[in-house]
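Example for tutorial group B:
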C-alpha cells in the first residue's frame, strides 16, 4: 500500500527544494501549496477520521453520514497532492524530458499519436473544468488505454492508474499566472516527471 494511502495521513517531504521548479512554478507557490494547503488537508482528514471513529463507537449514524464529505474532500486532497509532488521534477533532474522509446512512449503513440496529442487532450480536460479540480493522464486497466480525465474538487482518480495529475485549483498557479490557465499548463509540462509516470505505468 502506498504511504499516502495509510492512516493517519502524513504530510510527505518534497523530493526537491521549493525553488527547484522555477520558473515554471515559483518557490512562493510551492511553499504555500505544500506547507499550508496540503498540510491542511492532512490535518482535516485526520480530525475527520478520528471523529468518524468516535461516531461509529457511539453508533451515531447521522454523525457518520455528516462526516463523509470531509473524509472525501480532505482524503482526496491528500492523495492527489501526494501524487502531484511526485509528478514533478526539476529540469536539471529530467523534468519535462519525455522518453523517446519504451513502454510509456509506445503507449502514448498508440493512444494519442504522440506527446503533442497527449498534451492537447490533457490540456482540454484541464481547461474544461468548471471551478476547481484536477486533470489527469490515467491508465484504464479495463481498456488497457491511456485517457485524459478530469475530476472535480479534490475527488481522487478512481478506476484508473494515475500517471500524471495536474492541479487546476487556483492556489496552484494564480500567484504566477493569474487567471491565464493556458500559460500555467504550457509551463508545467516542462517539469513533468515522466520517469515517475513510466514507473506507475509499469506497475499497472
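The residue assignment follows.
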Amino acid at each position: 500500500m502506498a504511504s499516502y494511502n495509510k492512516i493517519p495521513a502524513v504530510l510527505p517531504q518534497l523530493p526537491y527544494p521549493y525553488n527547484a521548479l522555477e520558473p515554471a512554478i515559483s518557490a512562493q507557490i510551492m511553499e504555500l501549496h505544500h506547507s499550508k494547503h496540503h498540510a491542511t488537508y492532512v490535518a482535516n482528514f485526520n480530525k475527520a477520521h478520528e471523529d468518524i471513529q468516535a461516531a461509529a463507537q457511539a453508533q451515531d449514524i447521522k454523525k457518520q453520514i455528516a462526516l463523509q464529505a470531509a473524509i472525501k474532500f480532505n482524503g482526496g486532497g491528500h492523495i492527489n497532492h501526494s501524487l502531484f509532488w511526485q509528478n514533478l521534477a526539476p529540469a536539471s533532474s529530467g523534468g519535462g524530458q519525455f522518453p523517446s522509446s519504451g513502454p510509456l512512449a509506445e503507449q502514448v503513440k498508440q493512444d494519442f499519436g504522440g506527446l503533442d496529442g497527449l498534451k492537447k487532450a490533457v490540456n482540454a480536460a484541464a481547461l474544461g473544468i468548471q471551478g476547481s479540480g484536477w486533470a489527469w493522464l490515467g491508465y484504464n486497466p479495463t481498456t488497457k488505454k491511456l485517457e485524459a480525465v478530469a475530476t472535480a474538487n479534490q475527488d481522487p482518480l478512481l478506476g484508473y492508474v494515475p500517471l500524471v495529475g495536474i492541479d487546476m485549483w487556483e492556489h496552484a498557479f494564480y500567484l504566477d499566472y493569474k487567471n491565464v490557465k493556458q500559460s500555467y499548463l504550457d509551463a508545467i509540462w516542462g517539469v513533468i516527471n515522466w520517469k515517475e509516470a513510466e514507473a506507475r505505468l509499469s506497475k499497472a
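The chain has two domains: 26-89, 93-202. Compare this with the pattern of hydrophobic and polar residues in the output above.
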